[in-house]
Amino acid sequence: MQVSARGEYAVRIALTLAAEHPRTISASTLASAQGLPRKFAEVILGDLRRAHLVASARGVEGGYRLARGPERISVGEVLRAVDGPLAEVRGRRPEETSYEGAAVNLPRLWVAARAAVRSVLDEVSLEQAASGEFPVRVAELTDEEGAWAPR
Amino acid sequence: MQVSARGEYAVRIALTLAAEHPRTISASTLASAQGLPRKFAEVILGDLRRAHLVASARGVEGGYRLARGPERISVGEVLRAVDGPLAEVRGRRPEETSYEGAAVNLPRLWVAARAAVRSVLDEVSLEQAASGEFPVRVAELTDEEGAWAPR
DNA sequence: AGCATATCCTATCTATCAAGTAGGATTCAA
DNA sequence: TTGAATCCTACTTGATAGATAGGATATGCT
After folding, report:
1. Were both Cys, which of A84, A132, B147, B151 would link to B105 (CB 3.0–4.6 Å)?
2. A14-35 tens-digit pLDDT
3. What's the number of domains chain B is made of?
4. Are the Cβ atoms of B12 and A95 closer than 8 angstroms?
């Protein structure tokens, strides 16, 4: 699960918008709040707008705000908007894969892996991520032995 | 969770070796069994060897075999050997991330997402993946409503 | 010894993409 | 009308994925 710079930035921007919801905030304010390059932030906000996750207003007093309440937008949606599907195998979606021989059962494994990712990223709203009050299932994952250790 | 061509190929090769364990199989046989470019398969097998997941023998009658029993190697280990860490955020490990403002809780979310991925890929052995007899927890994920549908 | 068949090593190629920058056209409130 | 903002198109730069090429090295068999 590789999260790109775009993806990380998008989530940080979305969280900032969530915390200020429903106020309208400019790209430069958002960028400096999270220490991101302004122009790049603009590009990302364009993606989020096209995905209907944020609404924008031009002109003085313009800026961006979440298109829905922060409890109704998941982190997964934000990531998908800028990075595409959450899980892909060699550029294909898990259920589109197909193999022969000893690998015939692999598609099921890819689908399971994607389901696991979704069970976290699609189940956590911006509101929860901003407040740190994660769903129990998710919180349990971070409490597990070894969850914070590299492998 | 993007699985690269290398990653996918590595798992398919590993599964083929698992099915034939403990026989020694040549790179060309493995490659044609799974329809992969032979030279590329050699590179990947080199990675797997350096990670001590396969053992190799040179010369006529040479080839590759799993370094351990297929029930003692997880799919996650194979993927790590060729693609590096299972989860990274902007090139960093989840527990190494750190943010300010509305994103302070984000590292916990990244760690949870990684734990979710691990709970599938590190809990499924090559033997299980080859036979299709996945652990209950994993099998349940593929049975869930919508698990096979794109988003 | 010699040969066939493997692994193994180094180097190279090409296309694509990520990340970020540049400049300016457009919109809008005061 | 002016200042501040979004929005649009284009570009640069570097790294990486996904191979391929050629040959050096090892090994079993006859």
Report:
1. A132
2. 999 999 999 999 999 999 999 9
3. 1
4. no
